[in-house]
Amino acid sequence: MPSQGAIVAVLATAGLCSSFMFTLMVPIQSKLPELLDASREDTAWVVTSTLLAAAVITPIAGRLGDMYGKRRVVLALVAVMILGSVIAALSPGIIAIIVGRTLQGAIVGVVPLGISIMRDVLHADRVDAAIAFMSATLGVGGALGLPISALVTERSDWHLLFWMAAGLGIVVLVLVLWIVPVSVLRTAGRFDFVGAAGLAVGLIGILLAISRGNEWGWDSPPVLAFGLGGLGILLLWGWFELRIDEPLLDLRVAARPAVLLTNIASVAMGFALFASNVVYPQMLELPVETGGFGLSLLAASLVVMPSGLVMMALSPLSGRIAQRTGPKLLLLLGALSLIAAYGFTLAFSTEVWHLLVANILIGAGIGFGYASMPMLIMRSVPQSETGASNGLNALFRSLGTSTAAAVIGAVLATSSTEFDGVPVPTSAGFTLSLILGGAAAIIALVVAVFIPTRGGYTDAHPALPAR
């Protein structure tokens, strides 16, 4: 059997690949209408499609992993991502690009599955540190991917980004086949296809309303139809899931206080994270005449990049804290660090190094917070539910980031002014966005205080004994 360190390294590489998919289009997002000869409304789907696919596939993939083998589903998700990357790399038109980007979103499901694999195959005394390391890749992949994408975009054909994604996917596929063992822990029963379809349709409706509300209008018929329709379908889905013997997600397990409160905190933490991803790069890149710092995309990405490096550096510490005191303290520390980051920026934002310090605090906050969530979940659910429960937690984080994208985007758009004929955000818009990000971090802190310290499954690492 491969060494435990090799297994963790391979799964972490898969996590890096996942987070890279979300920074892939950032350098060229504003140029897509010109590159694809399409309207800005149409090119927005290049990003929205990946978000929707990730949110829908993640909880479903988690359940499939519990039933049919987590390694098998990881391989399938990576293969789908490779296919999507090749389709996008070969296409000059917007339709195929959107199809490719939708398929790329499947890779996001490997993170909760990878964390569940760790619980199945690692020694108990290594699980917390491995989960912290895996969670850190969510920030590291984005932090490293942004300058790489910017550099490629500035010096080569933008389609090369998709070939890079396909190549990375092939490397991950080979490494998983070679290193990651087959998990023998399976959940018996039949897959809930009706539940999967209901969850998918409901989520798509709500996420469409959130992600497109700024452009379509929050009170427009399409947004109201998608939002209220999606909410109604999810309510019916929940009623259905509680009445069948083999549900897609066991909502009774999801309603346990430790699981429910962790998922609520995940929404707030996801909002606080993505608010920083929207605000800080724009503050760094806007012209000096408008109150920004006038940095290039590459220079701005280098200022933001340390947040991901801090997440990686803190992962061993996160594991040790979780083993000694439990993961709840990690979530509290993460929320406090995010509050400090937003508070520092509200007080000091006149120099580039001020934003550098804020991003380091953001990295510490997300590093601690994202490491704690899967630990809290897996201490609170039976081993047969780890894949689905981690997938559901990832979904709640996605809801937080999606909501932040819509809300912060609306705030900056409504408080913009024109500069050289182009609307740019004002300092008042940035201030309100920072306040909202800090408020989300405060909500995460308050919710974390009430999470029970014992979830009921603290000894659930039966695959291998502790040393």
From TrEMBL:
InterPro entries, per the entry: MFS (IPR011701), MFS_dom (IPR020846), MFS_trans_sf (IPR036259)
The UniProt record lists the keyword Transmembrane: yes
Pfam families: MFS_1
Coiled-coil ranges (or none): none
Keyword Membrane: yes
Membrane association type: Multi-pass membrane protein
Domain of life: Bacteria
Entry's transmembrane regions: 43-61, 73-99, 105-122, 129-152, 158-179, 191-211, 223-240, 260-280, 292-317, 329-347, 353-373, 394-416, 428-451
Sequence ranges assigned to domain Major facilitator superfamily (MFS) profile in this UniProt record: 7-456
Keywords: Membrane, Transmembrane, Transmembrane helix
Subcellular location field: Cell membrane
PANTHER family noted in UniProt: BLL0718 PROTEIN (PTHR42718:SF35), MAJOR FACILITATOR SUPERFAMILY MULTIDRUG TRANSPORTER MFSC (PTHR42718)
Name used for this protein in its record: MFS transporter
Native source species: Microbacterium memoriense
Source organism phylogeny: Bacteria, Bacillati, Actinomycetota, Actinomycetes, Micrococcales
